[in-house]
Amino acid sequence: MFGAAVQTGGVEFWEAPERSGWLMKQGAIIKTWRRRWFVMKQGKIFWFKSDDVNSKSVPRGVVEIKGCLSVKGAEEMLNKPYAFEVSTRDKTMYFIADNDREKEDWINAVGRAIVKQSSSMQDNEVMNY
């Protein structure tokens, strides 16, 4: 799920995130680039206008990692340095990090989370038999 009606799923995103930082995100409808604060925790990536995130903060959007198929560099696709993409069955979202290390750290963190989500789903499927 991308943006719109944001469901936090009870995730306390303001405490001890697995990963957080500034990224540029392309708007879903109006394709302008906006700087947003991203927080990854418990299988979700939230974004906010400000890095002052607390229990009263309302995310501008969320990506459920369990719906993600891939994360990879997108510098050539967008012709922008430090760009990467996160793809689901329905959509591809594009992001731009501040530098190469940030880009690689986000790709690795999201990639690990995708693997973790898919392996935990497989474990659940095996248990159902």
TrEMBL record:
<dbReference type="Pfam" id="PF00169">
    <property type="entry name" value="PH"/>
</dbReference>
<dbReference type="InterPro" id="IPR001849">
    <property type="entry name" value="PH_domain"/>
</dbReference>
<protein>
    <recommendedName>
        <fullName>PH domain-containing protein</fullName>
    </recommendedName>
</protein>
<dbReference type="InterPro" id="IPR011993">
    <property type="entry name" value="PH-like_dom_sf"/>
</dbReference>
<feature type="domain" description="PH">
    <location>
        <begin position="16"/>
        <end position="115"/>
    </location>
</feature>
<dbReference type="InterPro" id="IPR051707">
    <property type="entry name" value="PI-Interact_SigTrans_Reg"/>
</dbReference>
